[in-house]
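Protocol step 6 of 9: fold each sequence in the batch and record its structure tokens directly after the sequence line. For illustration, a two-sequence batch is reproduced in full.

Sequence one:
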Amino acid sequence: MIEMRWALPGDREAIIDFIDYVFSKSARPHDFATLLPKLYGGSADTTRHHYIILEDGKIVAAILAYPVPMVINGVQMMTIGVGSVSVHPRARGRGYMQALLSAVDARAKELGAAFSVLGGQRQRYGYYGYVFAGMQMGGSLTRDNVRHAMRDVDVSGYALLPMTQAHVPAALALHDAQPCRCERSEAEFLDILRSWDCEPWAVMQGDTLVGFASLSVSGGHCHAGELVVQDAHIAAALKLLVTTHGPLQVTAAPWQTRLAKTLTAVCEGYRITGPHAYKFYDAQRVCCALGAPEGSLSFDGFSLPLPLCVPAPDCV
């Protein structure tokens, strides 16, 4: 017997066990309660946002369609973060992926979402109407870059501190000053920054918070899942990060122009990437908010994609 439906509260543990199994089987071991505490931690309540398919009472496919309110240049809009897309290896080829993504479309229509967004293999999701339309710059900053090109940057008086709840109001204010952002609450802020094996850090000048970062450090290298710093302190923050945590991988969203200019002036290398795939349900509204012509959603050759980036990891 095959059953397709939105999940009920009692399905929570079975969903987590199922997605842990599928992702662990295809890649490295996964523990979603730790990887995504906002969505699967002990106090998280996202079960109802999962669409599941069961065969004889057992989950064989699942998807998360999580409502993510966003603000783009002052325009509020609902979006859908798509994640935890999983089909049991022995249940593939039965059309379940189509059923999962059709459920996302239905939920997006119900909520009046402007678009849904996910990360995944381009052609796999292209079959279901998803396109690479956003962009960000990724840069690599080494200790040699810092030693030679940032020797005059003064970091005295700056410090990196593990972020606590006491830092959150100031960090959230910095986050909310961005022109494109997911709406976050103080209660969920730290859990969001802890996603995907990251830890939240406060960039301090004296007793004043001037920035924050979510950092994953491994093997003497540092990856910044998110870095938001006041413009006047970006160079000092970058130098401090590399000095204390090792070579740095960092991304800059289209509106983080000072960060991008600082990186391109000194970093070892950089590239423009399309980090996410989007399915637009109200393209005109998104383009108007971005001040872009509607035709910019589609592009050929070397023309640039839409200057849209959903700050990780809100979009799951």
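Sequence two, same batch, same settings:
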Amino acid sequence: MYGKTQRVGGVLLLWLEAANEFLLDHGVIGLIITAFAEASFFPLPPDVILVPLSLLNPKLSFLYAALATIASSFGGVFGAFLGFVLGRPLLERFAAKERVNKVARLFSRYGGWAVALAALTPIPYKVFTIAAGVFKVPIWVVFTASLAGRGLRFFMEALAVFLWGDQATAFISNYLGPVTITLAIIVIILAMLSSKKRHKN
């Protein structure tokens, strides 16, 4: 059983590597496709296309970040649509029931801020966009939160490439995680303040 699981994992890894190479070869189109698809069903993050493209042409890094942000935000809306139509069973295909219950509590407490949090951090974004549909978060909230969260993440990567060129990969590897976590904490604080204000009203 363990050997079979290893083989399946190996095949999946090879498939992801081939998909990454194929999409990277297609440049901007590959970036847009990856950013859209990752927000609803695809496992490959847009960062693996965005950063190499930006390194090839740092002057266009902000344009690439903008395209990735817009495509990912529309992908988030598509993910929410899938969640709305197909419901909780689809969500549970991407996450264990315990995690689904935790996501449900986040949406119950923070609403669209939960999407912004997932959009900003390495937390699987598609889990939250599909959940947004399952828990009937308004589409405009999903889109706006996606723009904010994904925009911050992708533009930070673009800025790093623009400022430091090839050395940006070290910054992204070592510091992007802590920076995004710090920003995520700020998002959570804002969400808590917004939630308290809403309850008072």
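Proceed to step 7 once all outputs are recorded. Observation for sequence two: The first helix runs from residue 2 to 25.
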